[in-house]
Amino acid sequence: MYIDEYLESLRQARLSPATIEAYIRELGQFRAYCQTHHLRITQVKPKVVVDYLKYLQTLRPSQGEAVRRRMSALSTYFSYVGMVTNGRIRNPLAPLRRPRRQRPNPKPVDDVVLETLLAGITVARDRAIGMLFASSGLRLSELVSLNRGSIEIETTPFGEGAQIVGVGRVVGKGGKEREFLVDLPTLRQLHVYERERGEDDEPALFVSNRGTRITQRAIQHMLRKWCRTLGLDPIHPHAFRHTASSTWHRLGMDTLRISRLLGHSSVAVTDRYIKPDAARLKAEYFASMELLARRGTPALPEPAAKERS
Q1: Could you write out the DSSP letters of every residue in the chain?
Q2: pLDDT tens digits, residue range 205-236?
């Protein structure tokens, strides 16, 4: 079915391990379905794909975006098959309509909720993870990939004194490396965690109870546990990313710089992360109008007189 060859082409293209793992999972399910129903790849028509998607919905109901990703994985696979067979096998997903893409409505963690969460976490490692999420805007996969020494401490001139900040580098989506920043309270909490952890041979910055690199699923479970303990609604790690961007925007950082810190491919993506600050908007509006009033409203030019014919 050319699935193994296709997956090898993805590895050679140096896609992220998470992306390749998703394709392995989706195409593995599809191969198992075809084998169970004794289908050759030449027999996979649009109706077969529709029946397959309905079958998956009975096993694991999914929302529109998940179905879109599933169809996208199959479509790119069949595009590859069409290429290697010189067009003899056509893409059966081409005529199928995909669920409409619904723009997410990202919501940052409320300031009071965030303060309650971080103050209530009593485990040094878990508090360090929460604080690093909130101060850096890192993705979950990026935070998990950090090693000891990934964050360096720098002293930057600030006014008449100096500002201590943590500077790290991480490889984000698309294999793009970028810089991220960490505030001083988070650096102190990271120091508390590393001192409590002690010396070991594991290079990962955050480790599990077994002493190995912590997984994304373990962090999600950890956050749910603390939210439940503190009587808070569940918080997904990605919500901290929206919190960081909204906070930076509220404090006056421009969108372009926020986009660079978050590792977005375009400023348009960053705009969806920034929660509008109504108070700041009004203050800037009135400041602009006051400046205009002090300068005086320019007189409108007199209309030119029409010439008589």
Answers
A1: --HHHHHHHHHHTT--HHHHHHHHHHHHHHHHHHHHTT--GGG--HHHHHHHHHHHHHHS---HHHHHHHHHHHHHHHHHHHHHTTTSS--TTTTPPPPPPPPP---PPPHHHHHHHHHH--SHHHHHHHHHHHHH---HHHHHH-BTTSEEEEEEEETTEEEEEEEEEEE-GGG-EEEEEE-HHHHHHHHHHHHHH---S--BSSB-TTSSBPPHHHHHHHHHHHHHHTT-----HHHHHHHHHHHHHHTT--HHHHHHHHT-SSHHHHHTTPPP-HHHHHHHHHHHHHHHHHH-PPPPPPPPPPPP-
A2: 999 999 999 999 999 999 999 999 999 999 99
